[in-house]
Design brief:
CAP_dom, Immunoglobulin-like, five-stranded antiparallel sheet, alpha+beta, 23% helix, CAP_sf, signal
């Protein structure tokens, strides 16, 4: 069986605008509109653990969040691991036994989401996302894995330095150029390569390359929006992120994103006017790609 060339994932967070209402109504409407529960499908870490995580996002009111890892078996499926927290984010891990697993996450308001079922062979990386993820939006859960620590490769990630006086490496700037070429076909204005978004994108690609994971959520629990703001980006009315791994060139990764409806939706969203691109190789030459978008 041929292995896919690379893997992709997309996430998006958009600001909401509401009509004037009473303070109580506004608070309730905002909570209902923004509060989301998400859960990652189980995967196998380098330490041979089955792991998953879940999170509550955009929620003002603290609530109990519970995750269950379920194993599909003849008859009723069996819960093999369960945990709960009020901190808004939780990761579960257990020793790997080959089989088919899925995860569910529920908060006390009754919001429940279920991950896709995946067959795990107890080899590192099994269950990692494949090249056909769904785009996320304010109405759908954003994947938020917080994986257990994995060994750092013996060789450090490398990437070309930013061009003198510019933003990003030659590869990263080529991704920006190709992205803008696709946007032009749909009538969208060109994106400007923003240094703070580039710092957030490059930092995430470097982190994934160094720690051998693939997720919109950093292993320290930060979301893509946390990383964007942590890079000093302020203001804005919308943000999104595309990630990929394994594509060997800017042309191949942009084409892969354009072939996926969720990633294409982020690229072709005319609301965005800024972009940051990060491209970093791991010790084996595999490139991790990140695109961060923003409207400001």
């Amino acid at each position: 069986m041929r292995r896919p060339l690379g893997v992709l994932a997309a996430a998006v967070s958009l600001a909401a605008i509401a009509a004037p209402v009473s303070a109580a109504e506004a608070a309730a409407a905002t909570e209902a509109a923004r509060c989301r529960v998400s859960v990652l499908k189980p995967s196998v870490s380098d330490t041979m653990k089955i792991q998953t995580s879940a999170a509550r996002r955009g929620c003002f009111t603290p609530a109990l969040l519970r995750i269950r890892i379920n194993r599909a078996v003849p008859g009723p499926d069996r819960v093999v691991k369960s945990g709960a927290t009020r901190k808004g984010r939780l990761t579960l891990a257990l020793p790997c036994v080959p089989g088919t697993y899925y995860a569910t996450a529920t908060d006390y308001r009754g919001r429940t989401v279920k991950s896709r079922a995946v067959r795990l062979a107890c080899t590192p990386g099994s269950g990692v996302p494949t090249p056909s993820p769904s785009a996320t939006s304010p109405g759908t859960p954003v994947p938020t894995p917080t994986r257990t620590a994995t060994p750092t490769p013996t060789r450090t990630p490398t990437t070309p330095p930013p061009a003198s006086g510019g933003v990003g490496s030659a590869e990263e700037n080529e991704v920006v150029r190709l992205t803008n070429a696709e946007r032009a076909k749909g009538g969208c204005s060109a994106l400007k390569h923003d240094p703070q978004l580039r710092a957030a994108a490059h930092g995430h690609s470097a982190d994934m390359a160094a720690k051998n994971y693939f997720s919109h959520t950093s292993q320290d629990g930060r979301s893509f929006l946390d990383r964007i703001k942590g890079a000093g980006f302020t203001g804005g009315s919308g943000w999104a992120e595309n990630i990929a791994a394994g594509q060997p060139s800017p042309a191949s990764v942009v084409q892969a994103w354009m072939n996926s409806s969720g990633h294409k939706a982020n690229i072709m969203n005319c609301k965005y006017n800024l972009i940051g691109v990060g491209a970093v190789k791991d010790g084996k030459g595999k490139i991790y790609w990140t695109q961060d978008f923003a409207a400001r």
